[in-house]
Design brief:
Length: 166
Protein backbone atom coordinates (compact mmCIF):
# COMPACT_ATOMS: atom_id res chain seq x y z
CA UNK A 1 0.00 0.00 0.00
CA UNK A 2 2.81 2.42 0.85
CA UNK A 3 4.46 2.15 -2.61
CA UNK A 4 1.13 3.12 -4.24
CA UNK A 5 0.71 6.08 -1.90
CA UNK A 6 4.25 7.26 -2.65
CA UNK A 7 3.67 6.87 -6.34
CA UNK A 8 0.42 8.87 -6.18
CA UNK A 9 2.19 11.74 -4.38
CA UNK A 10 4.98 11.61 -6.93
CA UNK A 11 2.56 11.90 -9.85
CA UNK A 12 0.66 14.89 -8.40
CA UNK A 13 3.22 17.49 -9.60
CA UNK A 14 3.21 15.88 -13.05
CA UNK A 15 -0.56 16.13 -13.27
CA UNK A 16 -0.54 19.75 -12.17
CA UNK A 17 2.25 20.61 -14.60
CA UNK A 18 0.40 18.98 -17.49
CA UNK A 19 -1.98 21.96 -17.63
CA UNK A 20 0.92 24.03 -18.91
CA UNK A 21 0.59 27.79 -18.98
CA UNK A 22 -3.12 27.68 -19.77
CA UNK A 23 -5.94 26.36 -17.63
CA UNK A 24 -9.07 27.54 -19.49
CA UNK A 25 -10.02 25.49 -22.55
CA UNK A 26 -12.07 26.42 -24.53
CA UNK A 27 -11.08 30.09 -24.53
CA UNK A 28 -12.73 32.30 -21.91
CA UNK A 29 -12.95 35.71 -23.60
CA UNK A 30 -15.25 38.68 -23.05
CA UNK A 31 -15.74 42.18 -24.42
CA UNK A 32 -13.81 44.66 -22.30
CA UNK A 33 -14.80 47.88 -24.09
CA UNK A 34 -16.32 49.40 -27.19
CA UNK A 35 -15.12 52.87 -28.16
CA UNK A 36 -17.14 54.89 -28.96
CA UNK A 37 -19.89 53.17 -26.95
CA UNK A 38 -22.56 54.82 -29.12
CA UNK A 39 -21.93 55.54 -32.80
CA UNK A 40 -23.10 59.02 -33.65
CA UNK A 41 -23.94 59.60 -37.30
CA UNK A 42 -24.20 63.26 -38.28
CA UNK A 43 -25.97 63.73 -41.61
CA UNK A 44 -25.56 67.01 -43.47
CA UNK A 45 -27.30 66.91 -46.82
CA UNK A 46 -25.70 64.16 -48.88
CA UNK A 47 -22.72 63.87 -46.52
CA UNK A 48 -22.41 61.98 -43.27
CA UNK A 49 -19.73 61.69 -40.64
CA UNK A 50 -19.29 58.85 -38.17
CA UNK A 51 -16.66 56.67 -36.57
CA UNK A 52 -17.20 52.92 -36.46
CA UNK A 53 -16.43 51.56 -33.00
CA UNK A 54 -13.39 49.57 -31.94
CA UNK A 55 -14.04 46.52 -29.78
CA UNK A 56 -11.44 45.36 -27.27
CA UNK A 57 -11.72 41.73 -26.16
CA UNK A 58 -9.79 40.24 -23.27
CA UNK A 59 -9.11 36.69 -22.14
CA UNK A 60 -9.58 35.49 -18.59
CA UNK A 61 -6.35 34.66 -16.76
CA UNK A 62 -5.12 31.26 -17.92
CA UNK A 63 -7.27 31.25 -21.07
CA UNK A 64 -5.94 30.11 -24.42
CA UNK A 65 -6.09 32.53 -27.34
CA UNK A 66 -8.74 32.79 -30.05
CA UNK A 67 -9.19 34.26 -33.52
CA UNK A 68 -12.54 35.70 -34.60
CA UNK A 69 -13.02 35.72 -38.38
CA UNK A 70 -16.75 36.32 -38.94
CA UNK A 71 -18.74 39.41 -37.95
CA UNK A 72 -22.51 38.95 -38.20
CA UNK A 73 -24.39 42.25 -37.74
CA UNK A 74 -28.16 42.50 -37.32
CA UNK A 75 -30.06 45.73 -36.81
CA UNK A 76 -33.19 46.63 -34.87
CA UNK A 77 -35.20 49.84 -34.74
CA UNK A 78 -36.15 51.73 -31.57
CA UNK A 79 -39.08 49.39 -30.91
CA UNK A 80 -36.83 46.31 -31.10
CA UNK A 81 -38.13 45.04 -34.45
CA UNK A 82 -35.44 43.48 -36.62
CA UNK A 83 -34.60 45.15 -39.93
CA UNK A 84 -33.80 42.06 -41.99
CA UNK A 85 -32.64 43.81 -45.16
CA UNK A 86 -29.76 45.46 -43.25
CA UNK A 87 -28.29 42.27 -41.77
CA UNK A 88 -24.81 41.50 -42.98
CA UNK A 89 -22.10 38.89 -42.57
CA UNK A 90 -18.56 40.26 -42.88
CA UNK A 91 -15.01 39.02 -42.55
CA UNK A 92 -13.08 40.37 -39.57
CA UNK A 93 -9.71 39.66 -38.02
CA UNK A 94 -9.76 39.87 -34.23
CA UNK A 95 -6.96 37.96 -32.52
CA UNK A 96 -7.02 37.68 -28.73
CA UNK A 97 -3.76 36.26 -27.43
CA UNK A 98 -3.67 33.71 -24.68
CA UNK A 99 -3.66 34.94 -21.10
CA UNK A 100 -0.80 33.28 -19.28
CA UNK A 101 0.15 32.80 -15.67
CA UNK A 102 3.79 32.18 -16.69
CA UNK A 103 5.26 35.15 -14.81
CA UNK A 104 3.09 34.77 -11.71
CA UNK A 105 3.90 35.05 -8.74
CA UNK A 106 7.14 36.88 -9.62
CA UNK A 107 5.37 39.34 -11.87
CA UNK A 108 1.82 40.13 -12.85
CA UNK A 109 -0.08 37.57 -14.93
CA UNK A 110 -0.27 38.45 -18.62
CA UNK A 111 -3.82 38.94 -19.86
CA UNK A 112 -4.35 38.46 -23.60
CA UNK A 113 -6.16 41.24 -25.45
CA UNK A 114 -7.08 42.10 -29.01
CA UNK A 115 -9.05 44.79 -30.81
CA UNK A 116 -10.70 45.38 -34.15
CA UNK A 117 -12.95 47.95 -35.81
CA UNK A 118 -16.59 46.83 -36.07
CA UNK A 119 -17.93 47.86 -39.49
CA UNK A 120 -21.51 48.48 -38.37
CA UNK A 121 -22.30 51.75 -40.18
CA UNK A 122 -22.19 51.23 -43.93
CA UNK A 123 -23.90 52.43 -47.09
CA UNK A 124 -26.98 50.28 -46.49
CA UNK A 125 -27.46 51.78 -43.00
CA UNK A 126 -27.05 55.31 -44.35
CA UNK A 127 -29.54 54.59 -47.17
CA UNK A 128 -32.00 53.21 -44.60
CA UNK A 129 -31.67 56.43 -42.61
CA UNK A 130 -32.24 58.60 -45.67
CA UNK A 131 -35.56 56.90 -46.47
CA UNK A 132 -36.89 56.04 -42.97
CA UNK A 133 -35.36 58.72 -40.69
CA UNK A 134 -35.03 56.62 -37.55
CA UNK A 135 -33.68 58.45 -34.52
CA UNK A 136 -31.64 55.42 -33.55
CA UNK A 137 -30.84 51.81 -34.40
CA UNK A 138 -29.23 49.02 -32.42
CA UNK A 139 -26.59 46.86 -34.05
CA UNK A 140 -26.21 43.40 -32.55
CA UNK A 141 -22.73 42.22 -33.40
CA UNK A 142 -21.91 38.52 -33.25
CA UNK A 143 -18.27 37.56 -33.66
CA UNK A 144 -17.34 33.94 -34.26
CA UNK A 145 -14.19 31.96 -34.88
CA UNK A 146 -12.04 29.30 -33.23
CA UNK A 147 -9.71 29.18 -30.26
CA UNK A 148 -6.19 27.78 -30.25
CA UNK A 149 -7.57 24.32 -29.40
CA UNK A 150 -9.88 24.54 -32.47
CA UNK A 151 -13.08 24.88 -30.40
CA UNK A 152 -15.69 27.29 -31.76
CA UNK A 153 -15.89 30.61 -29.90
CA UNK A 154 -18.29 33.52 -30.10
CA UNK A 155 -18.87 36.97 -28.63
CA UNK A 156 -22.05 39.02 -28.86
CA UNK A 157 -22.52 42.69 -28.05
CA UNK A 158 -24.95 45.50 -28.85
CA UNK A 159 -23.90 48.89 -30.17
CA UNK A 160 -26.39 51.79 -30.34
CA UNK A 161 -26.36 54.02 -33.41
CA UNK A 162 -27.85 57.52 -33.12
CA UNK A 163 -28.61 59.78 -36.05
CA UNK A 164 -28.75 63.55 -36.16
CA UNK A 165 -29.01 66.14 -38.90
CA UNK A 166 -31.02 66.29 -42.08
Amino acid sequence: MKPLRRMSWATLPLLLASCGWYTNVPAQIHVQSIVPATVGVVVTGANSTFTNPTVTAVGEYGSIGATYTVCNVTYADQTGHAISNLSTNLAINLRVEGATLASYPKGAPVQGTGNAVLPIVNKAVLDYYSTNKPGALTATVGLSGTDDAHYPVSLTTNVPISFSGQ
